[in-house]
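Comment thread on ticket #2218

A.B. wrote:
> Attaching the input chain for the structure job we discussed in standup.
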Amino acid sequence: FPSGQSNPTYRLTAASGDYVLRRKPFGALLPSAHAVDREFRLMSALHPLGFPVPEPFAVCMEEDVIGAIFFVMELARGRSYANGALPDFDAATRRGMYEQLIYTLADLHTIDAEKAGLGDFGKAGNYFERQVRRWTRQYRDSQTDYLPDMDRLISFLPESIPEQSRTSIVHGDYRIDNVLFDGDGTLTAVLDWELATLGDPLADFSYLAMQWAMPADGGSGLAGLDLPALGIPTLDEIVERYSERSGVPVAATLDWFFAYNLFRLAGIVQGIKKRVRDGTASHANAEEMAKRVPMLAQAAWRFAERAGAKR
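C.D. wrote:
> Ran it. Output below, let me know if you need it in another format.
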């Protein structure tokens, strides 16, 4: 499949039907990155609960079979939509699709990790503290240029981490183009669980909510669009729906969370940039994607300033 910047993903056709294979990328990798075996374990726990993930069939930990750890899963029906305005649908269908997007995330955050056999899927302690530390390390390990905004964020974020009120299963990359919808707008599957762990549910919600804060440019961003006319819920509406369904109170201001999420995204894209330089990037547009690191860092710092950061 041509989409995705991380783990190469393939469609398999066999006499028994079609399947999907997902493997670690080619070349040298950063420690703890691209853990497809963790994806397989999580999906194996969620699928029996009725949560919309493709059915996982088998994982292979022996790297000499195809050159990397990989797993095979069901080919889920439906398609992803990168344009948050969902121009292929009418207003009523768009509203339903976004409500499903919010409710599915809330439902994930109400799953009891212990009962699902995932009590040890993440470390104890403040999720954001661990994540800021992790993505600082990942960024430093793949750094290719000096970006002052990233250094400012690396100083500010650890000193301003909000308290964590609850621990949930966290997807880590929950956005509209990581779910599938069928032709009538029904959500059929949530994909790309590579970054999943146990942590603060507000990490997932605020990452999705960034869609409402980012400019509409043909991607997932919605800022500047006439949302009521399009049938798309406003940011206030998704906060209300998510909070009611999940029981997780959303902070009065999301600026710190937006700064963190953009910082983390900059770290992820910096890893792509390093793989472009090393010749191991898995996506045809990886080089273009890699150019976004300074823009992401700048946007993250703007939100950090709104959250109280000083130069």
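A.B. wrote:
> Thanks. Noting for the ticket: The chain has a mean pLDDT of 92.
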